[in-house]
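new request in #modeling-help
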Amino acid sequence: MAIPNDPDPKLAQYAHPDKLVTTAWLAEHLDDPGLVVVESDEDILLYETGHIPGAVKVDWHTELNDPVTRDYLDAERFAELMRAKGIGRDTTVVFYGDKSNWWAAYALWVFSLFGHPDLRLLDGGRAKWEAEDRPMTTDAPAREPADYPVVERDDARIRAFRDDVLAHLGKPLVDVRSADEYTGRLLHMANYPQEGALRGGHIPGAKSVPWARAANEDGTFRSRAELEALYQDEIGLSGADDVVVYCRIGERSSHTWFALTHLLGYDRVRNYDGSWTEWGNTVRVPIEREIESE
Amino acid sequence: MTGTLPETLPDPLAEIVELFSSSPPRDRLELLLEYSQSLPPLPERYAAHPERLEPVPECQSPLFVATEVDAEGRVQLYFDAPAESPTTRGFAGIFHAGLDGLSAEQVLGVPPDLTTRLSLNEVVSPLRLRGAVALLSRVQRQVREQTS
């Protein structure tokens, strides 16, 4: 049975209003059969300190990655994970998490690779839910294992690999890392971690829009008009563009991927999850940077 | 792991390492959570003067540290990390439980592969582990500055 969309007027402005829910809506629908809330955080212990009642945890580090190859889990593992979390193919999954839904958007993007039909993000994430004094619990959710079919991952639509990016040079790229990572300054700062990359800078032609600019102070997404000003007026993207977004390992850029795809309705946005930890370590790929070489 | 020399760890830290490495991966996270909860609050002289604590920018969430070396050469450690950052707090809690009250020499002798010895690689992301290593190196630098 399909769960209705959140009719909140704020969501109606976006291209795909069915992809977001408000905290008020979720509070009303927590007990809906056919809806599972998934918490996915940057801090992998945060869920254990308290979570939305009934929510299950998805650990991006141990559960969404292949344990050996640098890749996401395969179709068999994904189906197993879904069964264990009590998620069926027709379940409505609502993601939320810390840091303005940074990792929640990442988990949603990984689920999207498997084409799970009904995926939604809680606007404002964990911080907004807590700020509104909504219920939190440390009780483990009691979820029955579900059936889930083995569905092959489809990387082509929304995921870019290094060779795709090389072929994409000259077309729109968005670097969503901080300004210092973008310019290449970060590797030159004293006492700063190298973020696992040997070279600093950005992919040639990439425009810098740090991911958090798509979010308000309370972690909710900015209005459609504000997002258009940011991505269309400021860096000249348009809905007809073929766009690649990237960051360090693809998590921050999932948030931007979500904004471009579901809030502005761009239908050709790919997330390059190899991101800077691959590009900045790859021999002879071109790099631009804005600081003097030492 | 190559190059591990467990005998160089001071006793309290060695016990923590043993506790982690002998536990199944799932339980290691639970242990880290317990250490995050056991981190003592800051004493007033730091709580009222947060500028006396050194930030640890390598960590992905706010973390601040101060160390003191008393007249007998014993090290006292003070950490501040928000409750909504339990992983960061957990590492601070381990360092507090494992190092507070030891001699400066013992603190300076802790090897940088401590996080590997804690067997957390499987369950905690590399960037976080690097943050913990950075925390240790800042503690050791502060101790060195006060004893040299």
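bot summary: The first helix of chain B runs from residue 11 to 21.
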